[in-house]
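Before a colleague's protein record goes any further, I have to sign it off. Thanks in advance; the entry in question is below:
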Amino acid sequence: QTEVLPPMRKVLAQWMSEVCEEQSCEDIVFPCAMNYVDRFLARTDVKKSQLQLLGAVCLLIASKMRTSRPLALEALVYYTDYSVTAEELKAWELLVLSKLHWDMASVVANDFVDHLLCCLGVSGDRATVRRHAHTFISLCATEYRFTSYSPSLLASASVAAAIHGLNRPLSCPRNEVVTTLEQITHVEADQITQCVQDIEVLMATSFAAFQQPPHSKVNSPSTSYASTKLSSNNVPSTLDSSQPNTPTDVQDVNF
């Protein structure tokens, strides 16, 4: 890319995440959409002024692929503050599909979570662990450095981080989680442990940022990074915690 930089990607990802939250999309839509964004950016040079259009189109495609209720074109146009048109979304949808050779059945970390929880024997707190794991995966999708991790590794680390953050008895002892995940996924334990640590650092940073006094957030990841401001009730609640110093101790966080 000649214009798009990692900080711009993060702004775009945060906007896309907020759109998914506002539209009550399923957890898998946002990571899937970011997968499309990264794959497209790896193949095609994109201008900064086209970045939000790309994000909106990837959300549209991901919602079609992963849910029974796709996002409406009118809603996406609204969330871009009318900086794009429905016609542009349709044209770029075809462009993205063409550039990705219509290979849209991407495997993302969310696809592994339920299987891993089943194999680990997590029962009583399974819904909580699942919710936290999906939240960690979505948070990781906003950071460019996590794109180097395979979906199975990211899923394993997110599940491990979620379990380690719950101070409650589980069917699978916490000290055996990483070893069991290694046996299931054939991902080395030290890689899982390192990824868990990276997630914890990201969570700590995010907790600290969200505990700062409220400030303006951009709605449109444009060249200036500031076009239309989001209202305060659009801020994601996934990082709202009272214990920023222990990022994986999140049993009391309502994700």
